[in-house]
């Protein structure tokens, strides 16, 4: 059997020959063809389970700590497919109350020298109602996170923005195992409104009121922006955000979203200028994501589960995140460069590393370096 990484090495040049969003759409179209009838064929390649990988979090059982990050399956079309690739959990979205076509293309770019992407998709999604109907018809087997964002419309501000978030929460939270509030989207003019602690306070008050009204106990997480740079992790606003979040009963943090800056990249400035604005993802985020994780873990005294995302493309990086305090990790850009076999490689590698270091489970290694 040809190993999956070798197969992906064959396909990658073809995919990378295509414009990035076209390659993305083509891959998802193939996955949609496979999903209804061909999942069994994926199992021998991708299935790898081990009891040491199980993580218990928020009363949920994650068969392994490797999840799909938000943005790859914005409309929740392929949840069963991601499960068949061996992900321990899937986060769909971001989904907003109203459907949105996003920013005009081109809006997704590869930076191969940096193993990175830049995107300014602009929250393109089918909207809460349509995604909810899709999810109602679908049976998922592993924990499902639903990532919510404010509708991409600069005229929806203040109270209206809170009402917009509450509307999608009301429609989608009953269908999720956890909800992530994306307050850190860099690709819309007002995507970061709720990173202001006062605005966040008002948003969380309203969201938790809806949760009470719906009689749900679903964990609500916050997705955070990257720190300003590798060197400036500490940020007083972040401390305030965490304090406000804890006051309201936020169950954990997802860190980090894409970055707006272009610090320390190998890609030439001329290419970066041609690409223009957008969120940077992939390997250049790794140091920042890891440092912020240490910081969050200490700030929250290890009491809140943390999901680490940003630049994870190897077992070494995934294991480092767990040791730095992540209960779970997520992948996006690493998958584009390494292929879907990355999920299995990380899981197998984690089991080996845990054994080498004398841990009987992922759970035992969480935060050991923090
Ligand atoms: C094309 C693209 C679209 C994304 N869309 C979303 C989104 O809708 N909501 C969200 O919370 N994060 C989104 N993200 C951010 C990822 O979930 C993740 O936080 C970020 O890419 C860092 O992880 P990575 O380095 O593994 O890609 C997107 C990322 C990419 C590359």
TrEMBL record:
Residues 53-354 form the Dihydroorotate dehydrogenase catalytic domain. The lineage of its organism: Bacteria, Pseudomonadati, Rhodothermota, Rhodothermia, Rhodothermales. Its main location: membrane. This is Dihydroorotate dehydrogenase (quinone). The keyword Flavoprotein applies. PANTHER family: DIHYDROOROTATE DEHYDROGENASE (QUINONE), MITOCHONDRIAL, DIHYDROOROTATE DEHYDROGENASE (QUINONE), MITOCHONDRIAL-RELATED. It is found in: Membrane. Gene3D superfamilies: Aldolase class I. GO terms for biological process: 'de novo' pyrimidine nucleobase biosynthetic process; 'de novo' UMP biosynthetic process. It comes from Rhodothermus profundi. GO terms for cellular component: cytoplasm; membrane.
